[in-house]
Write a structure and sequence with these properties.
This protein is α/β, with parallel strands linked by helices and 201 residues long. It has 7 helices and 7 strands; from the N terminus they run ααβαβαββαβαβαβ. It is globular and about 45 Å long. It starts with a helix and ends with a strand.
Length: 201
Amino acid sequence: MNINYDQLFSIDTSNKGVRKDQLEQYYQYEATPYPHLKTLFSAYPLKPTDHLVDIGAGKGRLLFYAHYYFSCHVTGIELNKQLYHLAYENKTRYFKTFPNNERSIRIIHDRAENYSIQMKDNIFYLFNPFSIHVFKKIIDNINASVQQQSRTITLILYYPAHEYEHFLQTDTLFKLIKTVKIPGISKINPKECFVIYQLAR
């Protein structure tokens, strides 16, 4: 059974009508396909106690999917002002359909490296939103947060950039714990997968 998730959530997260961000280190918006999200979270389900941060959240597709199915806290960080406003409009429509605790979904307009990591944030999701230079700053911020509040951090990368993985494996304490392949597609393109790294404390 094919589910129209945007219709279910009363949102619009299509890739249409989106301008490319002009900043060199930040890349064009592209939403993770819903079937891929279903594959990911079937292999790695979330818990209501999780606090997930989508870095480069775009229109918020991942936020609403995770919130709807797992009732966890989610935060989206988006630099592009147009996308941020569209994500916020989606949040308004989502909570009209599903009245709930609106504090459990946060959408922030800022550079990813400026985000003040909360002590309960424990899962970070990235779909290649920016250059390796910005990625390294994000990891530095995560490490600093763990120094303040010891906890296990999970990092989920979709279509992982080689530079991201090389840095994680050679310059950090993050360990690869799982690779989630997309049925059929990963055989054609091995990069079409999710890799899950963890920093255990």
